[in-house]
Amino acid sequence: MQSSQQQIVTHVAKWLGSGQAVWLCTILKTWGSSPRPIGAMMACTLGGELVGSISGGCIEEDFLEQLQDGSLKTQYDEEGGKPFIVKYGVTAEEQARLKLPCGGQLHVLLEFIEATPDNQTVFGRLQRDLENHSGVSRLVNLDSGQITASDRSSEDAVVIEKGSMVHSLSPMYRLLLLGAGDVAKYVAEMALALEYDVTLCDPRPNYLDNWHVDGVEKTSRLPDDVVRERFNNPFSGIIALAHDPRVDDMALMEALKTDAFYVGAMGSERTSAARRERLPELGLTKDEIDILHAPIGFQIESKTPAEIAISIMAEVTAKRHGALS
Question: Cys-Cys with 129: which of 81, 134, 156, 247 at CB 3.0–4.6 Å?
Fold first, then answer.
């Protein structure tokens, strides 16, 4: 599975590799309601093959019309052959025409990227880094249009400074679920809908046999090994749902030492307190244990597996987007 950014980078790398020039659109700023966030992208070949989205569809249609009638290329030439910014929804009439919400505006950077060896190399590196589950940034010189790749990253998706744009890209976020049970099924289904790459781990014999969710990888390997090898970076989350310390604690003793963006464990207040008393015996410090979200999820008086899953994924989502410490 790939994140939306990864899908677009992959398509651009493929098109450039085949000698096709590409238009690349990146959202720089939004005002009011916006269907797509800052940093969202859309790419399009000169033949009109399109991937990604920067609106609900109306801006895409407007873009394709300008591509076909030549006005897009004319504007690019008028800007001296360098990236330029288009502001959508500045007037009420344009908001109505493009079906933007009242007060909604989008500022979009348009780049015309030719299939040069340098651009092919840059997008090849972006593609490889994202495939290797590493964050990477696209640096664009706004005066020349030159694009480079960098390990530099920012909490903000897009930063413009000193005549350049730093566009932070991220791979598909991963979730590791511990424990093959009903809650894990609902969490997995919701996580897939939210575009996570999901793995279910349970080393207990026979537990995986009757557990299945399409699109979820299953493994019976030891949880600490799985965490150490694949879920140890800021694009990973670990959710302990087994209700069995032999499974949950084995994963947590590794997970709480990683840079995972979220680590949580299901259980009551009493169970969670007992777990916090056990974890120091596994070599974890107080600061590491304080990272743990337990009891897991927002407290919504949930009782059923589906309701518990909703509370869990709401908390995971809030943490991913910086709404939780």
Answer: 134
Distances (CA, A) of 238 to 171, 208, 241, 250: 17, 18, 10, 12
pTM of the predicted model as reported, rounded to 2 decimal places? 0.81
CA nearest neighbour of 128 among 20, 228, 54, 17 = 17
Residue at token pair 């090898």? 229
What's the total number of domains in the chain?
2
Query: Could you list the residue range(s) of the whole structural domain that residue 50 is in?
Result: 4-169
Beta sheet of 147-150, edge-to-edge order:
147-150, 136-141, 164-169, 158-161
CB atoms < 10 A from the CB of 70, how many?
9
Residues 21 and 131 in one domain: yes
- Give the C-alpha separation, 92 to 96, whole Å: 6
How far is 46 from 36, CA to CA, in rounded Å? 23
- Give the tens place of pLDDT for each residue, 256-268: 999 999 999 999 9
55, 25 Cβ separation under 8 angstroms: no
Q: Residue type at 180?
A: A
Maximum pairwise Cα distance, the chain: 69
Neighbouring C-alpha atoms within 13 Å toward the C-beta of 65: 7
